[in-house]
Amino acid sequence: MGDFADFTDEAIGELSKLGKTALDQITGKSPASDLSSKIKQQTNQQTQSLWNEIAKFAQSATAQFSGDKPVTSSEIAKMAKKDDKFSQASQEEIRQKILQIYREYEKKKKHKEMMEQQTEKQQEQQQVAELHERQKAKEIVVPAVGKARAEIGKNYGSE
């Protein structure tokens, strides 16, 4: 019933436009070329309204075959809101995952740095121990070598 009312409103509107055009022609207010442009505009409007009617028919036909009702603009708006909420939630999840990855990376980096510091300390301790051993080896003097050094020192300038 609503489609019929829309159709009658369109038909009345088109007839009034046609009447104005005919009146303009009789009174001489518009040239003949203007009449052709108005006819083209009316044809475009009729084609668009006809196309809209065909689209509505196709939607209702597919809805009947699939068992669904046609989607209205308010339902589309509701779906868009739900989609926005979902996308915000998923964005937050992704942010949390990224933060977790960064935290794990930092932990691994700190652990690696600690391991490097420990190995450096161990190497330093080994070097210190080796140096200490060398110094001990130098301190140990064989008594015969010591006597020989002393005798060499005494006799060095006498010859």
TrEMBL record:
Region (Disordered): 110-134
Basic and acidic residues composition bias: residue spans: 110-123
Name this polypeptide is given: Uncharacterized protein
